[in-house]
Amino acid sequence: MRYLTDRKRAVGKGASGTGTEHHWWMSASAVALAFMIPTWLYIVGTTLGADQRTVISTFSQPFVAILTALIAVIGMRHFAKGTEIWIEDYVHGTAGKALKIAMHSLAYVIMATTLYALGKMVFIGLLMGN
Predict the structure, then answer these.
(1) Contact at 8 Å (CB) between 84 and 105?
(2) Superkingdom of the source (predicted)?
(3) Which of 26, 62, 112, 113 has the smallest count of CB within 10 Å of its CB?
């Protein structure tokens, strides 16, 4: 015999059981990106028009490399989760599932490409002696 009522079993679950977690993740990542992206844009702005050696030496510095990696990972996860919610709201059925897979795949391809390029710049920067 179950002593839990239907309401007691449902409290805190939401429709899918992860709505609160998703909301907090999106809020926290948005705040983090709001602080990181302007800093990163300033750094990138200072390297615009510079030669390749200057750009590589800038992006091989630990702070810039870590900041770029964090923006790539957090930003693309934020993008993937945001598009997933949009797709769930407006696209249904097989098309919705396919679109979710495509958006998550796009996010991970962009993330991997960014991290590869960043790793290559850091490696070249180490070889150059920076």
Answers:
(1) no
(2) Bacteria
(3) 62
d(CA 65, CA 24): 27
pLDDT in tens, 11-27: 666 566 667 788 899 99
- Pick the closest to residue 68 from 24, 9, 117 (CA basis): 117
25-128: CATH topology = 3 helical TM bundles of succinate and fumarate reductases (1.20.1300)
Q: Cα–Cα distances in Å, from 130 out to 15, 120, 121?
A: 52, 14, 11
Q: For 50-86, write each residue's pLDDT tens digit.
A: 999 999 999 999 999 999 999 999 999 999 999 999 9
